[in-house]
Amino acid sequence: MGISTDPALLDVELPRTLIESPSVSTFLPEEEASICPLLSSNTNGSTTPMTFSHPLTPCIDNDNDNDSNTSANLCNEDGKVETSSSSGSSSGIGMSVPDETSTTLFNKHSYKHLQNNNTSAQDSNGHGPNGNLPLGKDTPSFVSWNWPLIRKCTFFVFMSSLLAMCAVVVAMIVTLPKTCNPKTMWYRGSVFYEIFPASFQDSDNDGIGDLRGIVQRSDYLKSLGVSAVRLNSIFPSPHYPDDFKNITSLTDVSKVLGTVEDVQQLSQALHLRNMSLVLDLPLFPYLKELGKSDGASAVKVLASTTLNVSDGMTTTTTTTPRPVITTNLITQALQHWIKFGVDGFYIKGLEEFVELEDIDYHMAEWKDILGYSRVLIISEAVLEKVKEPQRSLLLRHVDLVDVHLNVFNGAKDLEERINNVLASEIAPADPGVWVQWSIAGVDSPRLTRNGVNTNFTLTATLMQLMLPGTPNIFYGDEIGLQAAKDQLNEHNETKHLHHLSTMQWPENSTQQFTNRETLPWLPNAPTANFDYLPIVSRMIGLRDRSPSIYKNAICKTESVLPNTAIRRSEDDILIVERLYPRRNSFASISNFGQKRLTLDMSSNFYSGVVMLHDSSDKIYFSDFQIGPAESIIVRLDK
User: Fold this and answer.
1) Which of 64, 95, 269, 562 is 20 to 30 A from 386 via CA?
2) Structural domains counted in the chain
């Protein structure tokens, strides 16, 4: 088949629009382009294709909205035009291709429309914060929030809360008690320290001790470990301290000792050191009779309590009977001293009154004045004088009953005496009345006296601190203080007071009882052993942290079980065993005889560890050795 080569046919003139490349021409006539939805018309009537920008395509901000063609051409300033052709094709469409991928990813204009520049949600032209993404009316408001700042604040609050919780946990761990022991009232199971004020410390160098002197020695009392200081008579008398029992007032202080303000200062000093102040209140012979009590009639104090119930408000009324307070010298004295910070009273001399018909009502009044947190103490001799059922009514209002032990009668008498007390109406119970154990005091001879070894005082004191109840240590017994000794008979007029010898302090102490130029009101005690002081202090500390010792019984829901066993041997050995559930058990073995003994006690105990000494020695009771006038405290092996 032949092709015509006629020049007339070859000279056909084609339209210019078919010859030019589509990249430089339009595919549609101007008339048709104006109605195409994908094309836009300029104001001069020319048609320009719309520019489409992919969200991940780098773009320059359209800062000049009037020149859209220029912005479209500058979309990729580093692009190159490449014409693709192949055999049989002449399309030649121009494409913009970046030189490198990093040019697109790290260009400073890349993804700019995704940033939050703290601008308004829409500008005047209806665009979004970056002028790229328009925000409609239905767009949530949180889209325009300052999220970087919110994230920083949230992180700060989270870290602060985490640190605060860690601090709270550390503080709780630090403040946790070292032991989890059952608690009792401050006067139950703790140790009292009885002081005759005129013989403890002289602060004004007149030879007689005073209240300010006790304040000066408050750190010593704290180091000893006692919980309360009990003062003997501080009240005025015609010749105090020689006739301290013949008081003339229950609301004043002897001028030799100080003022009522000094009592308050002493109370504050003791409270600051977690100790309490107890006063002896001697009624006889200052009062000849107690008189009648108005407490026999009770007034009902009404207390209304409102309870919320489902159908409305219901009011219930409870009644609490309280005694009528009789206005007399005793109730006035109690109310007076409470104002000055006194924490309890030992009512002394009740057993001397002939008529005790209303004693239970008097006790109810006195305890009502003191309240629950203050202690009321009476002597065991009062119970011996009162008959049942009055005795049971009286004991309802008493906190401590003072029981005196005569340690000079030997182990046999001590065993019977202690066991009888523990089996009487003041037997250990919680709640209930507790026993206050005394082995010396203002009304009895001092333990260390002529012909008595100072070791005997330490032996008796350690045994006393092992008993269930509240031990009462007389001042000076912790160092084996001896009674005053008048070898030249120069103080015969005060011979009945020589057991109230002035307190001795170590030689290296900066302050003695009084200055060197002043003679004390009693002759100095010739002996005192300060090596006993740390032993007694350790024993008090052991008692304070051991429920087996400071608790007087094992109290269960339906029963009260004893936790004390008192035994003796034929050789004047007294054994006090103390125990408590899930706690260490202890035993004190006291030799009140004058011989060194070797005993086989394996029928009672097997082995244990000796306490109160620097070294914890292991002992076996099959070959137990103890010296004369010695007490050994042992923690028993389980």
Assistant:
1) 562
2) 1
